[in-house]
Amino acid sequence: MFARNEAGSVACPRNLSNQPHHILSSHLSNGIEIEGDLSSASDLVFDGTIKGNITSKGSLTVGENASVKGDLKAEKGIIEGKVSGNSHFSECRLSPTSVISGSINTTSLQMEEGASLEGQCKIGKAKA
Question: SS3 for 22?
Fold first, then answer.
């Protein structure tokens, strides 16, 4: 179901149907523990524990039960759990249960009341 690439990262399953990647998603529940990097070619909901980076070519939801010690990168990020690391998204939403320790780089940020962010935040498009 999951495969390791040459760098030792875990890759979520590839799109095996004729459907566009954005229609498929992977969900890793709160019982999973990963040590190493995780990448997904589609939307990803992660609610477990990881010591490593997470990259998604679609959206990335860090669930309320999740604990991430590593960097995040995705088109859209929804953070509901604990993240210790830097995040890079086009769009980002921090829910009331989110606890972030690290920088966020995004073009659009929605931070709900109760969310916690300790670190730098860069919002908007970078100048060349």
Answer: helix
Q: What tokens does 33 get?
A: 């523990």
Q: Of the given ranges (6-10, 22-26, 41-45, 49-53), which has the lowest mean pLDDT?
A: 6-10
Please check whether residue 16 lies inside any domain of the structure: no
Domain that holds residue 100: 3-11+21-123
- Is residue 128 domain-resident? no
Q: Which amino acid is at 17?
A: S
Rounded-to-10 torsion of CA 91, 97, 103, 104: 0
pTM exceeding 0.70: yes
Contact 68, 82 (CB under 8 A): yes
Evaluate whether residue 28 is within a structural domain.
Answer: yes
Asked, for residue 27, whether it belongs to a domain, the answer is: yes
